[in-house]
Design goal:
By secondary structure, this protein is of the alpha+beta class. The chain has helices at 2-32, 36-49, 59-65, 67-101, 183-191, 224-227, and strands at residues 105-114, 120-129, 135-147, 163-168, 173-177, 181-182, 197-207, 213-223, 232-233, 239-240, 246-247. The strands form two sheets. Strands 3, 4, 7, 8, 10 and 11 form a six-stranded antiparallel β-sheet that branches. Strands 1, 2, 5, 6 and 9 form a five-stranded antiparallel β-sheet that branches.
């Protein structure tokens, strides 16, 4: 589908450029062509003076009646068409190259781990650059909440709470933790009413390597009843939520 869209756009631009070119040719030809009155007077003058009436013809008439001029005309048209096709091709090649080579950041769930001190739990995610260029000016926001709502959609991302300014190389993964959960709150969620879920959500913004700002919004959901224990929650138990996941 993306290739078809690109091809359609290329055809449209080529058609537009060709149309503009032909409009220009017609306008130029019309501005230099004598009207019927002028043509008649010119032919009369040429007859009286014994000169050829070639100068009285329109540019189009002279071009189509002279083989050399006719060949030169089509050579010019072909050359211009080649320039247009080449220019359009280069434009889309640059665009496609950027799509293929740019940095892409995906965000994966990395579970909930108990601190070494045992007094809190860390909600972890990883920012993975799956593109081909370094992701620059990387900054992020991470939050979490316990909820009994299976389809929680209220996942605010305050623009003034981003932090960081780092570079993630192609193929590299950067692990980060969001706001920690104190031990009492985590154990209360484990032993509390069912159903219950833990949502870890946020966003990451970055430069894609071509000076364009990109973003990835994420939301991971953990089923407390099915997966949580006093030791935390394994990363493979994280699921991408139906809300809060988006990217450009």
């Amino acid at each position: 589908m993306p290739m078809r869209k690109s091809l359609n756009a290329e055809i449209a631009i080529g058609f537009l450029v060709a149309s503009v070119f032909w409009i220009g040719v017609v306008a130029w030809q019309s501005s230099y062509s004598p009207n019927e009155n002028e043509k008649h007077q010119c032919e009369e003058s040429a007859r009286k003076s014994g000169q050829k009436s070639e100068e009285c013809k329109t540019i189009w008439e002279r071009t189509t009646t002279d083989p050399v001029a006719f060949f030169t005309f089509w050579l010019v048209i072909s050359t211009v068409g080649l320039w247009v096709a080449t220019g359009v091709g280069i434009f889309f090649q640059i665009k496609d190259t950027r799509v293929l080579q740019r940095a892409y950041i995906s965000v994966k769930p990395r579970g909930v781990k108990v601190f070494v001190t045992g007094d809190a739990y860390s909600c972890d995610v990883s920012f993975d650059n799956v593109g081909n260029l370094p992701a620059r000016k990387v900054e992020w926001f991470i939050d979490r909440v316990f909820s009994r709502d299976r389809f929680l959609a209220d996942l605010p991302i305050p623009q003034d709470r981003y932090e960081g300014n780092v570079v993630i190389a192609p193929g590299a993964s950067m692990k980060k933790g969001g706001k920690h959960i104190d031990t009492e709150s985590f154990k209360a969620a484990i032993n509390g009413p069912r159903p219950s879920w833990l949502y870890v959500w946020g966003a990451v913004r970055y430069d894609d390597g071509f000076g364009t700002s990109r973003f990835t919004n994420f939301c991971h959901r953990y089923n407390i009843a099915a997966t949580a224990s006093s030791g935390g929650i394994a990363e493979e138990d994280g699921r991408y939520h139906v809300h809060g996941n988006d990217a450009d």
